[in-house]
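Summary of Year 1 activities. Much of the first year was spent building the evaluation harness for sequence design. The harness presents a backbone, in tokenized form, and records the residue chosen at every position. We chose the following record to illustrate the format because it has been used consistently in internal testing since the harness was completed.
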């Protein structure tokens, strides 16, 4: 086996390990969030680690509603799609107001799981 073949094979093996680890992390994350929700706790200490469950709200924009709320259609070219960060920037720059976009998005709760070693 050549050096390139060995590196290619190792790369593939590592990518497979990453996929397996990501799947396991996702499963554990869901189980830990489920446990916290079931027991109505936001913090937990166990096994030498501290878990904190943080709930954030994120906006999910409706492209059609956002387009109709824009004062100038040329702004849509700046966005090209409803990108949350770009919309927030336009609001911060006073190009758009919160009033103009108030009916263009839904708020979605997102649970973030933070685990640190004690």
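For this record, the design step produced the sequence shown next.
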């Amino acid at each position: 086996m050549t050096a390139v073949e060995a590196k290619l094979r190792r790369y593939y093996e590592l990518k497979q390990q990453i996929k397996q680890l990501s799947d396991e992390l996702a499963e554990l994350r869901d189980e830990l969030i489920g446990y916290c929700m079931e027991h109505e706790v936001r913090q937990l200490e166990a096994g030498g680690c501290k878990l904190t469950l943080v709930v954030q709200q994120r906006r999910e924009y409706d492209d059609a509603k956002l387009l109709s709320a824009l004062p100038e259609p040329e702004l849509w070219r700046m966005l090209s799609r409803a990108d949350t960060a770009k919309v927030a920037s336009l609001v911060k720059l006073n190009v758009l107001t919160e009033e103009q976009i108030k009916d263009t998005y839904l708020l979605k709760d997102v649970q973030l799981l933070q685990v640190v070693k004690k």
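Strands lie at 43-46, 49-61, 105-117. Quantitative recovery figures across the full test set are reported in Table 2.
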